[in-house]
């Protein structure tokens, strides 16, 4: 079976590499020449634990290739669409990239194809894609499969290889054989495949992400309550999560959810629910609570700067979570933007040394180490839960700071690393 994955970003590269490791012939296609050139020369374009080995082994085995040529749409038995679906100004999912790929398929393909939509798309997109393809190329038979992806950045390879389930949405009567073949290795390993219709598969993805975002927003509100009543949010979370009906995941206090999925997916479902006249009050509240969370914590951090002028704030972690280089919608950016708007100097450090940061803040260089970022600083804010920060050399750091303060927005350190520091965290007495 020959597979072409269109879009070689966080999802497309991981999915393409993992499918190729199953022995499937995969070409990862992207219209960004720089990405493809880097991958061809052996450079991995995203920070994702374990990915480099999978990519290198598959290339050596002759199972994985990279290209910008649309000829690979025609060469494939299966086309997997994994392009971005970012947020439009009105909150809806922007389907320009996806529609661009559909055009490419209609213009470059001359026989029947199975097309899998892995991108997160609004309910009805698979059906519209099918209609569009029939209109543009009525003589061909297309099968459009909704196969939303649930991997998490930072553990994407293991999530892809060992998913809790694979969700497949298909129109009644369409063939399952190809998709079964694609996922044979996973089904042999006992991974359940959940078959449904396209609309349900699309809604499963949005409702899953919105539900997880809701848990995070909920716990952050509980954290505010815990602070007032003198409870400990970490204990509250552990106590709640010990109940099997609730479970322990996505119950961690933090500076507000970010990333390339939750913010845009909550906005897109909010938009869709409004458009169809079934407005979700819960999702609306989750979005508002999360925006308020980021603002409140930025203000709270700013109030810790009690010197009169020339404040310097150190931001540890700019990615939206640990073990990725992705800064899209990271809460750290809201904190940084707020501080800059107040005239505060920012010194940031991130273990991923993410290149995305320089694109967004050309005037801010990431420091070379956690200690270097703390030099002459009045406050360290821990924005991302990188393990590295736990073992920082706090004696050295205390020696280089102007005001020795830490605001731990991930409750990562647990308590003050030494008596030198004034330490604050969330939802409990530090
Ligand atoms: P991304 O921005 O990292 O990658 C998208 C890639 O598609 C880019 O490299 C871009 O150059 C390429 N592209 C755009 N138009 C193209 C075209 N016409 N032809 C070829 N390539 C094209 O995006 P991502 O984070 O991988 O997300 C992709 C989709 O998967 C989104 O819908 C997202 O919501 C969903 N998703 C993402 C994650 C995640 O953790 N990132 C998890 C699950 C689902």
Q: How many DSSP H or I helices?
A: 17
Q: Give the N-terminus to C-terminus distance in angstroms.
A: 57 Å
Which structural class do you get from the secondary structure elements?
Answer: alpha/beta
Percent of residues in beta strands?
5-15%
Largest sheet: 6 strands, parallel
On the 0 to 100 scale, the average pLDDT is: 96
Q: What is the alpha-carbon Rg in Å?
A: 23 Å
Q: Widest sheet: strand order?
A: 3-2-1-4-5-6
The total count of strands amounts to 13
SSE succession: EHEHHEHEHEHEHEHHEHHHHEHEHHEHEE
Overall shape: it is globular
Task: Give a topology summary.
Layout: E1 2-6, H1 10-21, E2 25-29, H2 33-40, H3 51-60, E3 64-67, H4 71-75, E4 78-81, H5 96-108, E5 113-117, H6 125-136, E6 142-146, H7 156-161, E7 166-169, H8 177-182, H9 184-188, E8 193-196, H10 198-229, H11 233-241, H12 262-275, H13 281-303, E9 312-316, H14 331-341, E10 345-349, H15 355-360, H16 370-373, E11 379-382, H17 394-400, E12 405-408, E13 422-424
Parallel strand pairs: 1-2, 1-4, 2-3, 4-5, 5-6, 7-8, 9-10, 9-11, 11-12, 12-13
The structure holds nicotinamide-adenine-dinucleotide.
In words, what does this structure look like?
The protein is an alpha/beta fold. It has a six-stranded parallel β-sheet with strand order 3-2-1-4-5-6, with helices on both faces. It has a five-stranded parallel β-sheet with strand order 10-9-11-12-13. Helix 1 packs across helix 3, helix 5 packs parallel to helix 6 and helix 12 packs antiparallel against helix 13. The longest helix is centred in the middle third of the chain and has 32 residues. The model has no long low-confidence stretch (mean pLDDT 96). The structure holds nicotinamide-adenine-dinucleotide.
């Amino acid at each position: 079976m020959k597979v072409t994955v269109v879009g070689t970003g966080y999802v497309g590269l991981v999915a393409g590499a993992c499918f190729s490791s199953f022995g499937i012939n995969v070409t990862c296609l992207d219209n960004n020449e720089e990405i493809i050139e880097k991958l061809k020369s052996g450079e991995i374009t995203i920070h994702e634990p374990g990915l480099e080995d999978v990519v290198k082994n598959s290339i050596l085995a002759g199972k994985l290739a990279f290209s910008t040529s649309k000829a690979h749409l025609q060469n494939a038995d299966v086309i997997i669409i994994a392009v971005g679906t970012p947020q439009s100004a009105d909150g809806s999912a922007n389907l320009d990239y996806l529609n661009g790929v559909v055009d490419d398929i209609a213009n470059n393909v001359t026989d029947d194809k199975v097309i899998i939509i892995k991108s997160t798309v609004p309910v009805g997109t698979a059906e519209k894609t099918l209609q569009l393809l029939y209109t543009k190329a009525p003589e061909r038979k297309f099968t459009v499969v909704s196969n939303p992806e649930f991997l998490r950045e930072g553990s994407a390879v293991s999530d892809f290889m060992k998913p809790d389930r694979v969700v497949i949405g298909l129109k009644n009567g369409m063939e399952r054989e190809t998709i079964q073949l694609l996922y044979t290795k996973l089904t042999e390993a006992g991974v359940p495949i959940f078959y449904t219709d396209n609309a349900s598969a699309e809604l499963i993805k949005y409702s899953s992400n919105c539900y997880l975002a809701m848990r995070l927003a909920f716990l952050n509100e509980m954290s505010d309550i815990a602070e007032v009543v003198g409870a400990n949010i970490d204990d509250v979370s552990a106590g709640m999560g010990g109940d099997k009906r609730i479970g322990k995941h996505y119950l961690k206090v933090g500076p507000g959810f970010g990333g390339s999925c939750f913010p845009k997916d909550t906005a897109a479902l909010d938009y869709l629910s409004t458009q169809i006249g079934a407005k979700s009050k819960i999702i609306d509240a989750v979005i508002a609570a999360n925006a308020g969370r980021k603002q409140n914590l930025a203000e709270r951090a700013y109030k810790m700067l009690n010197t009169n002028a020339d404040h310097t704030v150190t931001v540890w972690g700019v990615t939206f979570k640990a073990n990725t280089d992705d800064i899209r919608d990271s809460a750290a950016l809201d904190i940084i933007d707020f501080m800059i708007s107040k005239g505060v100097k920012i010194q940031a450090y991130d273990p991923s040394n993410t290149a995305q940061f320089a694109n967004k803040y050309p005037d801010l260089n990431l420091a070379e180490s956690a200690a270097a970022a703390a030099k002459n600083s009045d406050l360290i804010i821990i924005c991302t839960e990188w393990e590295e920060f736990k073992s920082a050399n706090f004696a050295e750091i205390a020696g280089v700071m102007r005001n020795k303060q830490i605001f731990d927005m991930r409750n990562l350190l647990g308590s003050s690393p030494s008596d030198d520091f004034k330490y604050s965290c969330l939802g409990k007495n530090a």
